[in-house]
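In response to the reviewer comment on reproducibility (Comment 2.3), we provide here a single inverse folding case reported in full, input and output, so that an independent group could reproduce the run without further information from us. The C-alpha cells appear first.
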C-alpha cells in the first residue's frame, strides 16, 4: 500500500482541484490519502469533511498551527502503507508524476525516490531567484553530509515506511525536507532522482515560503546533519573541515577582526617599513628620520623575517598585498593548529576545538587580525609546541629558528622548553634532545638575523618591560603593555577560566595522564594565563596551548553524559555557560566600543595627513604623542620626528631625552616651543589638543597666528 501524506494550511482555493487530480490518477498499487490539516482558519476543514465519504481518505488535525513538518509528522504516524509519499495541497505539482515515482519504488524496494525539478527533461517554471536559492540549498546540504541531491527541497518523495517508522521527526516547518535528506544520508539508504514538472505560485496565490525561510532552513540543515558532519573522516573530512575553519576565520577577521586593525596605529609603521624595504632591496639598515631613538646609525629591527615577508608582499601587491598577508598568516596559524590535532581527534571535533579556543575568543582574534610581528610568532609557536609534543627534534629546531628570526621574545620558547624538561614524562634522553634543539634553534636564528646582535639587546630590554622592571604607567606606555589588575583579568578571561577549570577537573578522570602529556600542557597554560596578568601579550601563546590541552584531554577522558552524576552534569553546564557568557560578553563589548575607536583613529589619520602638507621637505617634527610617529613615517617618509610606536623606545634610548620631551610637551607656550626647537632641533610641533583647549599650550598666543594651524584634534605649529 502507498500512503500519500497531504499537509495543508488554508488551501480552500485548491483543495477540491487537487483532490480531483489525485482521484483521477491511476496509481500502481493500493493507496490511502491522509490529509493533515495544520489548524487551518479558512473553510479547508469543512471541505475535508466532504472527502471522508471516500474510504481511502483519512483526515488528521494538529491542535495548533505548527508548520508543514509538524503536519507531516502527525500524518506519518497514522500511515499504514509500505511506501510513504508526500503531496502538497496546491497545484504546483502533477500527481501523475508522483505515480511514476511510486512505480519505480515498487520495482526497487528499499530505494528512496526523489523528484527533481531541475532535470533537463523536466518542465518547470520558477519565480525569479527561486531556482538559484534551491540549487544553493541543495549544494549546501550535500556538503554537510546529506546525499548530493539536485533538488533537496522538492515536495515529491516516495520513501520506504520501514526505514523511518522509528524516527522522531524534529522539523516543524519547511525544514522537514532537509531532515529527510539528512536521515537518508545518515542511514546510507539507496536513492534516485526522477524529473518532475513544477509551476510555482506567488505569495498572492498562497505561497507560504518567504526569503527569511531560507535562513531557518540553512540553520536546520546544520542541525540535522550534525552527526554526519562531526563524524566525517578520511581525507575528504579533513579537507571539508579545513575549509569550514578557513571560512569562519575569514568571516570573523573581516568582521570583528577588522575593527582591531582599523584602530591600530602600528600598522602604518609596518607598512612604511615594507615600502622602504621594497625600495632599498629588502633590508632597512637605518632610519635617519628617527635619529633620537638611535636608529639613524643602525636600525634595530627585532622582527626581521616578518618585515622581509611584508617587503615581498608589498612588491607583489603594495599596501593591499601586505594586508592580505595578515589573513594568510592567520589562516596558516589556525590550519596548522587544526592539522596537529588530527592525530588525536576526528576532523569535526578538531575544528570545533580550534575555533572555540582561538577565533571565537575575541581578544585573540583581534590580535591575530593586527599587522604585527607577533602573528608570525604565534604561527611559529604553534609549530614549536606541536613538534615539542611529538618530541620531533628536527622540526622543533626548524620552528625555533623561524621564531627567532621573526620575533624578539626568544626567551619564550626557551621557557617552554625548560618547563617541558622538568614536567614531561619522557625519558631524560628525549628531554635533553628537545632542550638542545630549542637552544640550537635560538642560537642559529639569532646568528642568521642580519641585525645581530642589536636584536638581542632589544630582546633583553623587552624582557625587562614584560617583567615589570619599568613603571609602564608612569612612562606612558601603550595599553597592551600595561598589566591587568587581578579583578580585571578574571572578568575579561571568563571563557579561558572555564576551559582551564574544566581541564583541571578532567585531570583526575583521565585514563592515561602521562601519555597524553596533559600535566605539562595544563601547567604551561596556567603559567601563561598568570603571565597575562603581567603582560597581555601572553595571550598569543595561551590560546594555542589551550587548543593542545583540550585536544590531549578529550581522547583520554572517560566521560558519558548519560552515565554522569547530577553534580558532574551541573558542573559541566555551569562551565559551558560561563564560557558562552564570557565569549558573548567580549564580542558585545567590541561591537559597542570598536566603531567609535575606529572613527577616532580614521579622523586622526586624515587630520595629520592634512597638517603635514604644510611641513617643508626633510624638516623635523616634534610629535608630542608617540603614536603619531607611525603616521608621520608612513605619510611623509622624508620628515624627521622624535618618538615612535611606544614611549619605551625613547625611554630606553635616552632617559634624558625622554624627560625633556615630557617637560616640553607640557603646556609651556612659547617657552616650550623654543625648547623643542633648541633641544630636539625641530622646525615643527604636532600635538593633540587637550581637554578641549584650542591649543596645547595656554600661552600659544605668544606665537604668531601665521605659525599655527589647527584641526579638530591636533595643532601644527611652526617653531
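Designed residues, in position order:
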Amino acid at each position: 500500500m502507498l500512503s500519500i501524506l497531504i499537509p495543508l494550511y488554508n488551501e480552500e482555493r485548491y483543495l477540491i482541484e487537487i483532490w480531483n487530480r489525485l482521484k483521477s490518477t491511476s496509481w500502481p498499487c493500493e493507496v490511502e490519502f491522509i490529509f493533515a490539516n495544520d489548524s487551518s482558519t479558512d473553510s479547508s476543514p469543512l471541505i475535508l469533511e466532504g472527502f471522508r465519504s471516500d474510504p481511502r481518505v483519512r483526515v488528521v488535525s494538529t491542535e495548533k498551527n505548527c508548520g508543514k513538518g509538524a503536519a507531516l509528522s502527525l500524518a506519518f504516524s497514522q500511515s499504514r502503507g509500505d511506501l510513504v509519499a508526500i503531496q502538497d495541497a496546491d497545484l504546483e505539482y502533477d500527481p501523475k508524476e508522483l505515480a511514476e515515482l511510486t512505480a519505480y519504488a515498487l520495482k526497487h524496494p528499499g530505494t528512496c525516490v526523489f523528484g527533481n525539478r531541475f532535470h533537463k527533461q523536466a518542465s518547470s517554471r520558477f519565480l525569479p531567484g527561486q531556482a538559484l536559492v534551491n540549487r544553493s540549498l541543495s549544494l549546501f546540504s550535500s556538503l554537510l553530509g546529506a546525499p548530493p541531491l539536485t533538488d533537496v527541497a522538492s515536495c515529491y518523495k516516495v520513501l520506504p515506511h520501514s526505514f523511518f517508522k522509528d524516527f522522531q521527526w524534529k522539523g516543524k516547518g519547511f525544514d522537514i525536507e532537509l531532515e529527510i535528506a539528512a536521515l537518508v544520508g545518515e542511514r546510507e539508504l539507496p536513492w534516485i532522482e526522477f524529473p518532475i514538472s513544477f509551476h510555482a505560485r506567488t505569495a498572492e496565490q498562497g505561497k507560504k515560503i518567504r526569503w527569511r525561510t531560507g535562513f531557518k532552513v540553512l540553520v536546520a540543515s546544520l542541525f540535522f546533519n550534525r552527526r554526519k558532519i562531526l563524524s566525517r573522516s578520511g581525507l575528504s573530512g579533513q579537507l571539508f573541515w579545513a575549509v569550514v575553519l578557513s571560512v569562519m576565520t575569514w568571516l570573523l577577521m573581516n568582521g570583528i577582526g577588522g575593527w582591531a586593525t582599523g584602530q591600530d596605529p602600528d600598522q602604518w609603521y609596518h607598512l612604511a617599513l615594507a615600502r622602504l624595504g621594497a625600495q632599498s632591496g629588502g633590508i632597512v639598515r637605518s632610519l635617519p628620520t628617527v635619529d633620537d631613538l638611535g636608529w639613524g646609525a643602525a636600525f634595530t629591527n627585532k622582527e626581521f623575517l616578518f618585515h622581509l615577508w611584508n617587503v615581498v608582499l608589498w612588491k607583489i601587491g603594495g599596501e593591499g598585498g601586505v594586508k592580505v598577508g595578515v589573513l594568510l598568516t592567520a589562516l596558516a596559524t589556525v590550519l596548522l593548529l587544526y592539522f596537529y590535532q588530527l592525530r588525536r581527534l576526528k576532523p569535526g571535533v578538531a575544528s570545533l576545538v580550534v575555533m572555540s579556543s582561538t577565533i571565537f575568543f575575541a581578544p585573540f582574534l583581534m590580535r591575530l587580525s593586527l599587522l604585527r610581528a607577533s602573528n608570525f610568532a604565534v604561527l611559529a609557536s604553534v609549530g614549536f609546541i606541536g613538534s615539542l609534543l611529538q618530541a620531533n627534534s628536527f622540526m622543533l629546531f626548524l620552528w625555533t629558528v623561524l621564531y627567532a628570526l621573526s620575533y624578539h621574545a626568544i626567551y619564550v620558547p626557551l621557557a617552554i622548553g625548560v618547563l617541558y624538561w622538568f614536567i614531561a614524562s619522557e625519558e631524560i634522553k628525549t628531554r635533553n634532545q628537545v632542550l638542545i634543539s630549542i637552544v640550537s634553534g635560538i642560537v642559529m636564528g639569532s646568528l642568521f638575523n642580519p641585525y645581530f646582535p642589536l636584536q638581542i639587546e632589544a630582546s633583553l630590554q623587552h624582557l625587562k618591560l614584560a617583567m615589570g622592571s619599568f613603571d609602564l604607567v608612569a612612562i606612558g606606555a601603550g595599553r597592551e603593555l600595561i598589566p591587568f589588575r587581578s579583578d580585571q583579568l578574571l572578568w575579561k578571561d571568563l571563557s579561558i577560566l572555564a576551559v582551564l577549570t574544566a581541564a583541571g577537573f578532567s585531570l583526575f578522570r583521565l585514563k592515561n595522564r602521562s601519555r597524553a602529556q596533559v600535566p605539562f600542557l595544563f601547567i604551561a597554560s596556567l603559567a601563561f594565563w598568570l603571565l597575562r596578568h603581567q603582560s597581555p601579550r601572553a595571550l598569543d601563546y595561551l590560546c594555542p596551548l589551550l587548543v593542545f590541552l583540550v585536544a590531549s584531554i578529550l581522547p583520554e577522558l572517560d566521560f558519558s553524559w548519560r552515565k554522569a552524576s547530577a553534580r558532574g552534569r551541573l558542573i559541566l553546564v555551569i562551565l559551558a555557560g560561563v564560557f558562552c557568557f564570557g565569549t558573548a560578553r567580549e564580542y558585545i563589548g567590541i561591537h559597542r566600543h570598536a566603531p567609535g575607536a575606529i572613527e577616532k583613529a580614521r579622523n586622526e589619520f586624515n587630520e595629520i595627513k592634512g597638517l603635514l602638507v604644510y611641513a617643508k621637505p626633510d624638516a623635523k617634527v616634534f610629535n608630542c604623542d608617540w603614536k603619531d610617529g607611525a603616521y608621520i613615517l608612513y605619510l611623509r617618509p622624508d620628515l624627521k620626528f622624535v618618538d615612535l610606536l611606544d614611549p619605551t623606545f625613547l625611554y630606553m634610548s635616552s632617559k634624558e631625552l625622554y624627560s625633556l620631551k615630557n617637560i616640553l610637551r607640557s603646556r609651556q607656550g612659547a617657552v616650550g616651543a623654543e625648547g623643542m626647537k633648541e633641544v630636539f632641533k625641530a622646525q615643527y610641533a604636532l600635538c593633540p589638543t587637550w581637554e578641549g583647549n584650542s591649543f596645547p599650550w595656554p600661552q600659544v598666543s605668544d606665537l604668531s597666528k601665521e605659525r599655527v594651524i589647527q584641526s579638530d584634534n591636533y595643532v601644527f605649529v611652526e617653531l
